[in-house]
């Protein structure tokens, strides 16, 4: 009988050890699942961070490019004035031709990166594209029309870079008293 008691004791010890090991295994599985879940969240956070940083870097680059282009269109304005002045004074043809070449090259470079000049003269006045610096009363009814451009405006990739400074012919408007009488 002692052998059966020993066997029973060994069997009980084994069952206890198996239960304990199964409990430890379940705890480790739970811990493993928790760590895996945390890893997935961290990977998602990292991917979101990368996307946000890429977007911010792109926006910063775009902002710097817009600032540079704003400075270059001022140079374009000055070249336009220099060419007009050189042509008006009848100065040396080579100088005038050289200024014209530089002006055209700068304009081509600006256009190649997406800068477009806003067409204004003869177009309806649009406050989102034009800045009225002078107004004159017109005789026609309808919309206000741009008569002359004082300083050209530009867009960059469809967004306003600088508004055009324009002279505007105001359309005739019905007087308030005339509309009340009707």
Count structural domains.
Answer: 2
| Overall pLDDT confidence | 87
Nearest-angstrom radius of gyration?
Answer: 39 Å
The count of DSSP E runs of length 2 or more, i.e. the number of strands, is 6
The strand line-up of the biggest sheet is 1-4-5
- The helix-and-strand class reads alpha+beta
Which residue ranges are poorly predicted, with pLDDT under 50 across at least 5 consecutive positions? 178-182
Strand content: 15-25%
Largest sheet: 3 strands, antiparallel
Shape: elongated
Number of helices: 3
The helix-strand sequence is HHEEEEEEH
Question: Share of helix among residues?
Answer: 55-70%
Kindly report the oligomeric state of this protein: single chain
Report on the architecture of this protein.
The chain has three helices and six strands. It is an alpha+beta fold. It has two domains: 1-113, no CATH class; 116-182, Head domain of nucleotide exchange factor GrpE (Nucleotide Exchange Factor Grpe, Chain A, domain 2). The strands form two sheets. It has a three-stranded antiparallel beta sheet with strand order 1-4-5. It starts with a helix and ends with a helix.
